[in-house]
Amino acid sequence: MVQLLPSGLTASVAVAASSANLGPGFDSLGLALGLYDEVIVETVESGLVVQVEGEGAGQVPLTSDHLVVQGILRGLREAGVEAPGMVVRCRNAIPHQRGLGSSAAAVVGGLAVVNGLVAQLDRPGFSESQLIQLASEFEGHPDNAAAAVLGGAVVSWTESSGEGGAEQVAYAAASLRLHPDIHLFSAIPQLRSSTAETRALLPEQVSHRDARFNVSRAALLVVALTERPDLLLAATEDVLHQPQRGAAQPESAAFLQLLRRHGIAAVLSGAGPAVLALTTATQLPAAVLDSPEARVFDITKMPVGDAVRWNTGAAVPG
């Protein structure tokens, strides 16, 4: 039986940005970044009010079509509760359409804030594995969602059962212990990109040789991220998606190659156009920062992101 939430409940959540693929780990490797969106929800007697500050303000829908609201509504259904009305406040720091997991953060934030609401009714919330499953169903792969839920570096995968219309897809992920000597630098342009459009640039089939190459590099990348950061440059080589997307994002492709020529393991962040650098150096070379290729990017040293955090009350957890 569905339980109606009383008016006057508040809950909040902070959820990290994420970078998927990390070069060869297409749709499987992910890394949370220390840039957070915040969501505060209050139950009211009726209606829906959506307020957005920061990234996306004036651009995203302020209706039930908003991804955060979609996540909340899905979470409420799964939890067996309903809200008579809601005020949803979003404070966004994650840039949209840059390859930093803003969509995954929105969905994970919406789902996770439900935990803060149902906790006030002494009802169980969603586990990490449930959050990964529910959030991944929105996009069909769990790399960004798993990183946003678990924080840090993750390996994700899918499992299918059944056939045809009865096919069921399970999404799962495991955390990696990121080597403490690895530093992250994000390079974020003003240019936006659609994941759907850049994914359409990828071929339906790849050669056995290219598949073998990426399998070896993805396996090596797990070693590099956890134990041997000296292998990062070789481990982040990719032939399956970054070269194909480069033509549509020439500035990102040029900056990525510049970083790699200077010995910095650089990758497209997700589908781009942001670039992520992974290095044991505490700063990027001056020759990179002062280059013409760097001028279109906001380059920032980026901490590793934490697991999603929710709270009862309007104070976003710190």
TrEMBL record:
The gene is thrB. GO terms for molecular function: ATP binding; homoserine kinase activity. Its main location: cytoplasm. Its EC number is 2.7.1.39. This is Homoserine kinase. It comes from Mycolicibacter nonchromogenicus. SUPFAM superfamilies: GHMP Kinase, C-terminal domain (SSF55060), Ribosomal protein S5 domain 2-like (SSF54211). InterPro entries: GHMP_kinase_C_dom, GHMP_kinase_C_sf, GHMP_kinase_N_dom, Homoserine_kinase, Ribosomal_Su5_D2-typ_SF, Ribsml_uS5_D2-typ_fold_subgr. Keywords: Amino-acid biosynthesis, ATP-binding, Cytoplasm, Kinase, Nucleotide-binding, Threonine biosynthesis, Transferase. Residues 69-152 form the GHMP kinase N-terminal domain. Catalyzes the ATP-dependent phosphorylation of L-homoserine to L-homoserine phosphate. Pathway: Amino-acid biosynthesis; L-threonine biosynthesis; L-threonine from L-aspartate: step 4/5. It is found in: Cytoplasm. It holds the Pfam family GHMP_kinases_C. Residues 236-280 form the GHMP kinase C-terminal domain. It catalyses: L-homoserine + ATP = O-phospho-L-homoserine + ADP + H(+).
